[in-house]
Write a structure and sequence with these properties.
382 residues, seven-stranded mixed sheet, PnrA-like, lipoprotein, membrane, cell membrane
Length: 382
């Protein structure tokens, strides 16, 4: 693996808004904080928020400035759901699309994994792209780790990147990993501030260490803002069954059960299954928090956008764009080791204006995390 020096990126962001960014150990389990079973709007918050820092100036990622990527042919190997999932894969696609527009990438190709495919299929997808001359090739998701370990050594002159995994030890492989727990902490704070029942919920797609990071941050953030909030936690599928990332129907059923129990703000880390979570929130007069992309602005979610108060944005688009720029410049060492709050690799959205009133509080907590006053765990408490 190439040595990565700690670098900084500046994500596309509005002034005063940081750039952004699933589930219980057993389906149906609860993680209940001590204290009241509910409360009125505004009464759930029991902790004083840290002071907000001065508003940051608006800025845009300059990684691709004056970079000529016209000689690159970029391959994009999607995880399940692919382009159009309104979440993780769409964020990666946006990064490549921007590279085509702003850096003149010569050609692109993309292919999507199926929920039932084996490792051989993943290896074949990556190998085919490499054989066709695509370079670099970006594997979207930790599910490609084993396939990449097998394929990368066979194509030493091809550059690969993998999102959400840093286990592949190869000189031509660059990991693009994120501090999902930090962005999810802010989602937990927002959920508490916007809950009228002092009762919130988390819906994770698949019970994996990656989604545990979303869960851990969300729970910690909620409990930092309130010592009486009640929290529902559920996963859609166990580890090994990745259908939890593409089953909106199951997302709807699980989220509806949380709403029936009294949760009125739901946060999901469930990929395409999140649409079902949003639909359940709308049917139950609850609110919801999106993930990965600014889901309020996703066209495929237009029918439920009115319940999406914010999204934990994971800047896969920025990471992918900056990686392509680094390859074009033949220097990936400038990329950050981890895309966290400090480098605006994760954060939250304000589209729709539904959390404008609590941005100072969120910014205060964000600054505490960046300064090290708050350390966010990437593992849920037992």
């Amino acid at each position: 693996m190439r040595s990565l020096r700690g670098g900084r990126i500046v994500a596309i962001a509005a002034a005063g808004v940081l750039a952004l960014a699933g589930c219980a150990k057993d389906s149906g389990s609860n993680d209940n904080a001590s204290g009241s079973e509910g409360g009125n709007a505004g009464e759930c918050v029991t902790a004083e928020a840290p002071p907000a820092p001065p508003a940051a100036a608006s800025s845009e990622s300059a990684a691709g400035a004056d970079v000529d990527a016209s000689k690159l042919k970029v391959g994009l190997a999607y995880d399940v759901g692919g382009r159009g999932d309104a979440s993780f894969n769409d964020a990666a696609a946006a990064g490549v699309d921007r590279a085509v527009e702003q850096m003149g990438v010569a050609d692109t190709t993309e292919s999507t994994a199926s929920a039932t495919e084996d490792e051989a299929s993943k290896q074949q997808r990556l190998s085919q792209m490499a054989n066709e001359g695509f370079n670099p090739i970006i594997a979207v998701g930790f599910a490609y780790a084993e396939a990449l370990k097998a394929v990368a050594p066979k194509f030493p002159d091809t550059q690969f990147a993998i999102v959400d995994d840093n286990s592949v030890e190869a000189e031509n492989v660059t990991p693009l990993v994120f501090a999902e727990e930090e962005g999810s902490f802010l989602a937990g704070v927002a959920a508490v501030y916007k809950s009228e029942n002092c009762h919130i919920g988390f819906v994770g797609g698949v019970d994996t260490p990656l989604i545990h990071k979303f869960e851990a941050g969300f729970l910690q953030g909620a409990k930092a803002a309130s010592d009486k909030v009640k929290i529902e936690n559920d996963y859609l599928t166990p580890a090994g069954d990745i259908s939890g990332f593409q089953d909106p129907g199951k997302g709807n059923v699980v989220a509806s059960a949380q709403v029936d129990k009294g949760a009125d703000v739901l946060y999901h880390a469930a990929g395409a299954s999140g649409k079902g979570v949003f639909e359940a929130a709308k049917s139950g007069n609850a609110k919801a928090i999106g993930v990965d992309s600014d889901q309020y602005n996703q066209k495929t979610l237009a029918s439920v956008k009115d319940v999406i108060i914010t999204s934990m944005i994971k800047r896969v688009d920025v990471a992918v764009f900056d990686y392509i720029a680094a390859v074009a410049k033949d220097d990936v060492s400038t990329l950050p080791e981890r895309f966290n709050l400090e480098v605006d690799g994760v954060g939250y959205s304000t589209s729709g204006g539904m959390i404008d009133d609590i941005v100072p509080q969120l910014e205060g907590y964000k600054q505490q995390i960046v300064d090290g006053a708050i350390t966010v765990s990437d593992k849920p408490e037992n």
